[in-house]
Amino acid sequence: MIIAWTKLFHAFFQATIGERYFYKEKNGRYKIIEGERKAWELKECIKNFQKGTQKQKLTEAVIANLNFFIGIRNKIEHRYWNSSALDILLFGECQALLYNYENTVMALFGDDYSINTCLAYALQFSHLRANEQLVAQKDLLSKDMQDIKKYIDKYRTDLSQEIYDSQEYSIKLLQIPKVSNTNRSDLSVEFVNWNSLSDEDKNNYQKVSAIIKDKIIKQPVSNANMLKPGDVINMVREKTGETLSLYNHTDLWKAFGIRPGTNSESKFETITKYCIYDEPHNDYLYTTEWVEFIVRLITDYGFKKENIHNKCKENLKMEDYNKKE
Predict the structure, then answer these.
(1) Which of 25, 29, 184, 285 could serve as 226's disulfide partner, Cβ 3.0–4.6 Å?
(2) 66: Cα separation from own chain's centroid
(3) Is pTM, for the whole model, over 0.70?
(4) In this model, does residue 216 exceed pLDDT 50?
(5) What pLDDT score was predicted for residue 15?
(6) Which of 147, 144, 108, 88 is nearest to 16 (CA)?
(7) 57-61, 185-189, 238-242, 294-298: range with lowest mean pLDDT
(8) What is the C-alpha separation between 257 and 271, in angstroms, rounded?
(9) pLDDT in tens, 1-41
(10) Which phi and psi angles does 237 have, rounded to 5°?
(11) Cβ count within 10 A of residue 63
């Protein structure tokens, strides 16, 4: 899409100002890169487009959306990443990027150049297979993904509320099932133009939106419900009466391989159901599922403080202890 936007501007400049969108050296000759004339990159295109004499201008929200993806492109251009991990972070901005492009194409060149017949509505499913969830979670914990996520969070935070709320920056979709008996040839998804709604309909939408927001709002707490080793030991003692030591806990995570060793370079290679690596603090945090697993070892399999070290001398398989014998 970065390339598509750049070519769109180049086409407009070619039709309006000729070939002045190519860079030139001080001697007046075209700047050549690998045998080709170097043209304005997207950021330069946006700047010159806004200075142009044409009536059409990009709104601040459209520019914010484009600048957002220029930054994303710069970060991922020379890295490998799992696109599914980015999908869940960028859905709204991606939809806006496409719609803005469609609108700009038609504004500059007419409806005949519309690409709406080529665009499909992207379906998002919340019920992913368990394995895909684990892969996506690991990807989000990787160093590259953490870097990208920090960029995304900072960029969004720095935006004004007006731009952030704009549909031109990020599409916000309220999905309401159609329960009426409609024509069977109708589309399953129907888009409603906000500007065409009556004041009463807008008011009803705001009520529904408020209800949904009230149900899904989350506090921005980092590492919520995650436990340090001492917390794990305390919770195990409360549930079983068995007082384990930190050495016992170390023997257990080593034997079951839920995380790498302290000096391992692959710090993110954990079983995320039980443990995650906390990069800012350079340590590991554990889940309540890990506590329950240790409790099961004690109550169902005879693990005690005095015998854990001997039981853990060999690698143990998690699946052998996940069901009561």
Answers:
(1) 285
(2) 17
(3) no
(4) no
(5) 93
(6) 108
(7) 185-189
(8) 8
(9) 999 999 999 999 999 999 999 999 989 898 998 889 999 99
(10) -65, -40
(11) 20
Q: Which residue has the tokens 């340590």?
A: 283
Residue 251 corresponds to which tokens in the numbers above? 């023997």
Q: What is the 3-state secondary structure (H, E, C) of the chain?
A: CHHHHHHHHHHHHHHHCCCCCECECCCCCECEECCEECECCHHHHHHHHHHCCCCCCCCHHHHHHHHHHHHHHHHHCCCCCCHHHHHHHHHHHHHHHHHHHHHHHHHHHCHHHCCHHHCCCCCCCCCCCHHHHHHHHHHHHCHHHHHHHHHHHHHHHHCCHHHHHCCCCCCCCCCCCCCCCCCCCCCCCCCCCHHHCCHHHHHHHHHHHHHHHHHHCCCCCCCCCCECHHHHHHHHHHHHCCCCCHHHHHHHHHHHCCCCCCCCCCCCCCCCCCEEEEHHHCEEEECHHHHHHHHHHHHHHCCCCCCHHHHCCCCCCHHHHCCCC
**Mean pLDDT estimate for the chain:** 81
Q: How far apart are CA 267 and CA 284, in angstroms?
A: 9
Q: Which residue has the tokens 């929200």?
A: 61
Domains of the chain: which residue ranges? 58-183, 229-321
The amino acid sitting at 251 is: D
Mind listing the pLDDT tens digit for each residue in 123-159? 444 444 445 544 555 555 566 677 788 888 889 999 9
